[in-house]
């Protein structure tokens, strides 16, 4: 089934609990392609993208060991919309190409792409189904402040750069409510996993159709 696995995207706003849900799917044996990890790969030392970033933003965003200073870069791009767009235009095509390669290599019944910007980046076009991990905005803010130790102002800027909760849920084929306990989230993940496996088992030739 190489290249023909059902491709499922998992997304959600910052602080929604995407990673928790993704880890649960991975624990059930689902291959996971992590867009954030690939985004880190394409800016590692020696990669052409890192050289272009240094030329554009200056050495202030490069650490003494030659690695990208992610915090410094994040502050720059979220302070100026045009800078964020420049960075996206550089990185998104590189990231998407590696994502395509890894999704196509899967031999599992279905493979999962985990991406915080699944919809915003156009990566939604790389998958057949979309799962959204959903929580209210206040919960997003509180969780992010606790987890990332950033200012409320920066959290608001990150939220503003992502698509709205309404738009995200509108694009979803499946919603996972993460406003409660991890146990409740796990129950939903396990139920959805069974649905997806059952569907692919029943209709392997139509795995890209609606579940």
UniProtKB/TrEMBL annotation:
Residues engaged in binding ATP: 15-20
Reaction equations catalysed: 3'-dephospho-CoA + ATP = ADP + CoA + H(+)
Any Gene Ontology CC annotation: cytoplasm
GO molecular function, one term: ATP binding
EC top class, as a word: transferase
Main localisation: cytoplasm
Subcellular location, record wording: Cytoplasm
Spans traversing the lipid bilayer: none
Pathway named in the protein's UniProt entry: Cofactor biosynthesis; coenzyme A biosynthesis; CoA from (R)-pantothenate: step 5/5
GO biological process: coenzyme A biosynthetic process
InterPro entries: Depp_CoAkinase, P-loop_NTPase
Keywords tagged on the record: ATP-binding, Coenzyme A biosynthesis, Cytoplasm, Kinase, Nucleotide-binding, Transferase
EC number: 2.7.1.24
Protein's UniProt keywords contain Ion transport: no
Family: Belongs to the CoaE family.
NCBIfam families for this protein: dephospho-CoA kinase
Free-text function comment from the UniProt entry: Catalyzes the phosphorylation of the 3'-hydroxyl group of dephosphocoenzyme A to form coenzyme A.
Protein name: Dephospho-CoA kinase
Organism of derivation: Marinobacterium lutimaris
Gene: coaE
């Amino acid at each position: 089934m190489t290249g023909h696995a059902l491709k499922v995207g998992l997304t959600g706003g910052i602080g929604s609990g995407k990673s928790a849900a993704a880890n649960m799917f991975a624990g059930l044996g689902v291959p996971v392609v992590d867009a954030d990890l690939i985004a880190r790969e394409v800016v590692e030392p020696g990669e052409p993208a890192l050289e272009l970033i240094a030329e554009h933003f200056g050495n202030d965003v490069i650490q003494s060991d030659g690695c990208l200073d992610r915090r410094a870069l994040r502050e720059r791009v979220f302070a100026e919309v045009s800078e964020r767009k420049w960075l996206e235009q550089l990185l998104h095509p590189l990231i998407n190409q590696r994502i395509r390669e890894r999704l196509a290599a899967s031999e599992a019944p279905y493979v999962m792409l985990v991406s915080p910007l699944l919809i915003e980046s156009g990566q939604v076009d790389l998958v057949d189904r979309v799962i959204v991990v959903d929580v209210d905005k206040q919960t997003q803010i509180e969780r992010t402040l606790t987890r990332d130790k950033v200012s409320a102002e920066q959290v608001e800027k990150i939220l503003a750069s992502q698509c709205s909760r309404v738009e995200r849920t509108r694009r979803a084929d499946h919603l996972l409510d993460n406003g409660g306990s991890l146990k409740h989230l796990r129950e939903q993940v396990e139920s959805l996993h069974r649905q997806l496996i059952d569907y692919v088992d029943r209709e392997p030739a139509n795995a890209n159709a609606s579940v």
